Automatic annotation (TrEMBL), chain A:
Pfam families cross-referenced by the UniProt entry: NMT1_2 (PF13379)
Localization per record: Endomembrane system
Keyword terms of this UniProt record: Cell inner membrane, Cell membrane, Membrane, Transport
GO CC terms, sorted: endomembrane system
Species, as recorded: Roseibium aggregatum
Name of this chain's protein: ABC transporter substrate-binding protein
Length: 367, 218
């Protein structure tokens, strides 16, 4: 290893949206910015949180709400954490068991994943189950402070389903979801790719709807960094952000999708069949046995201005925390959240000088 | 109530001690969740030696909510490799089956313990309200046993590598002896000299030779 390179250790969870970190480390983008980026695969978000808190990791692949939860002291081993860059937009889906999908389809669920239609169908199934005295349906999410939890809850609530009373919500590691569905321990789950496709390919699950349909172009994973590290290593962080931005642009090029699929499915990263990595990377999504759809922005990687965090994203995530009783609203908390999702570090690292504009966003049930 | 949902394959063995020796730390029940049965046994032994009789080992997560409700542990020790930590923490927050709220073991001010635990690859949780003095020795024990286990595993790995290296060097020597008509000592000297001249390790030269020889069909 070139001793002139600055070492940076990054923790990540094996998911398709670790792509930007993997590409930066393996395709030369980090070296070009003078960084030796070493990736450490982790088995739980709790480990990511703990190991960044004790300084094992300089930076990490994090669920977008994690830096907020850490900065607001809502989890154990919480240390002030920043989200200086978005590592991916979209990429999640809500998958239900084949049996549940059969019920939803009879209740009129849209085969193409329209959230309003599939939600309404699920509400009918739940009503019918209740009238028959059946146990509540069980859904899985990867973490209480995750976009998965908020998307699932938002989708359920929009259809008049109370996520805390009408269904049972469990937490389970992403790579275990498809098996839990196959074994009828879960009736559905919200997870990042490739763990929806895994169930579709196995024939045990059907994608009911997806993040890009629920909240288009919304952040999913972010680069997480403790405020302390950001303050003590500003130059290294800036160089890392430039490297990640270039890596994200490379990942976004559909011409690189096959190389990326090969890299990510390899034994050092996801260690899974390459077939389940391709759909989200190419946009050729398979929702069920006979339904495929081209959704080119299902999972988006992007460098440049689009990868900048924005206060508005943080606001929405914090609103969900308040809505579901995880956080108490306060002006202090809101201003802290805005600092966590501030675009300034990223913009200055990339020397972005265009006028700062808050991203326009719209949820599926906005009228 | 969230059920513990987990991958299949589970076993649990309850190994409650029979005799109560009235040790100073007696009375606490400790649940050890670890997929690695050998390491779990090492921790169990350590805790028993320290006078803890109620040590319960769980290797899998299925049905864990029920088990935790039944066992009602004061302390839970879990290895960091376990992919179910997020599930476990969520369960502590929301489960009505687990009677008392359970918090992260180490308190925030004790950063030394936190670091030591994470370094060693272990995490622990206690029920709310337990005195730190009572649980600190348990965490210390878990940390030292995890470390001892890692050291053992490293040594084993080193021994394996060493053995494999020796075999490769032997094969390289064999190739040189056969192709150049050298004695074993001469073959070894040639490997060593080549390594020195190229500023490489003997094992690397031997490896290259074995691979090259394989490619050339010996």
């Amino acid at each position: 290893m070139d001793t002139q390179l600055k070492p940076v250790i990054a923790g990540y969870i094996p998911l398709l949206d670790s792509a930007v970190l993997v590409a930066a480390s393996r395709m030369g983008f980090a070296e070009r910015e003078g960084i030796a980026l070493k990736l450490v695969r982790e088995t739980s978000w709790a480990n990511i949180r703990d190991r960044i808190a004790v300084g094992h990791f300089d930076v990490a692949h994090m669920l977008a709400p994690m830096p907020i939860a850490a900065s607001l002291n809502l989890t154990s081993l919480a240390v002030p954490t920043l989200a200086p860059m978005l590592l991916g937009l979209g990429g999640n889906a809500i998958t239900v068991s084949a049996a549940l999908w059969a019920g939803m389809a009879s209740a009129g669920a849209d085969a193409g994943g329209d959230p309003a239609s599939t939600g309404a169908a699920l509400a009918k199934v739940i009503q019918e189950r209740r009238s028959k005295g059946h146990a509540p349906l069980r859904f899985g999410v990867v973490h209480p402070f995750s976009c998965h939890a908020y998307e699932l809850r938002y989708w359920l609530a929009a259809a008049g389903i109370d996520p805390d009373d009408d269904v049972e919500l469990n937490v389970l590691a992403p790579q275990l979801m498809a098996d839990a569905l196959a074994e009828s321990q879960l009736d559905g789950y919200c997870v990042g790719e490739p763990w929806n496709t895994a169930a579709v390919v196995a024939g045990t699950g059907r994608i009911a709807t997806y993040k890009q349909a629920i909240w288009p172009d919304s952040p999913e994973k972010v680069l997480g960094v403790t405020r302390k590290w950001a303050e003590t290593q500003p130059d290294v962080l800036a160089a890392l952000l430039r490297a990640l931005s270039a890596a994200a642009d490379w990942c976004a090029d559909v011409g690189n999708a096959e190389t990326l699929a090969e890299l990510l499915s390899g034994p050092d990263y996801l260690a899974c069949p390459i077939e389940i990595c391709r759909p989200a990377l190419t946009g050729q999504m398979r929702f069920g046995k006979n339904t495929t759809r081209l959704i080119s922005d299902f999972l988006t990687f992007t460098g440049g201005a689009k990868a900048a965090p924005a206060g508005a994203y943080g606001d929405w995530l914090f609103e969900q925390m308040v809505r579901w009783g995880q956080a108490s609203p306060s002006e202090d908390a809101r201003s802290e959240v805005r600092k966590v999702f501030s675009p300034s570090i990223y913009r200055s690292a990339l020397a972005l000088t265009d006028a700062l504009s808050e991203p326009a966003f719209r949820l599926f049930d906005d009228v | 109530m969230p059920a513990a949902v987990a991958a299949p394959q589970h076993k649990c063995c309850i190994t409650n001690g029979s005799a109560h020796n009235g040790g100073m730390s007696g009375g606490l029940s400790i649940l050890v969740i670890d997929d690695n049965k050998i390491r779990a046994s090492i921790i169990e032994q350590g805790l028993r030696d320290a006078g803890h009789e109620r040590v319960i080992l769980v290797h899998q997560m299925e049905g864990l909510v029920r088990q935790i409700a039944d066992i009602n542990p004061d302390v839970i020790v879990i290895d960091l490799e376990n992919p179910n930590r997020d599930q476990l923490e969520h369960m502590f927050q929301v489960s009505r089956a687990v009677r008392r709220p359970i918090a992260m073991f180490v308190d925030k001010s004790d950063s030394h313990s936190i670091e030591a635990a994470v370094d060693a690859g272990v995490s622990a949780y206690i029920v709310d309200g337990l005195k730190r003095e009572r649980v600190k020795p348990i965490l210390d024990m878990a940390i030292s046993r995890f470390r001892a286990f890692s050291k053992l595993a490293e040594e084993l790995e080193e021994a394996r590598t060493e053995l494999a290296d020796r075999k490769t060097v032997d094969r390289a020597k064999g190739i040189l002896m056969k192709s150049k008509g050298l004695s074993e000592q001469e073959a070894y000297d040639l490997l060593r000299r080549t390594a020195m001249n190229q500023n490489r390790k003997i094992i690397d030269v031997a490896q290259s030779l074995v691979i090259a020889s394989g490619l050339l069909g010996e």
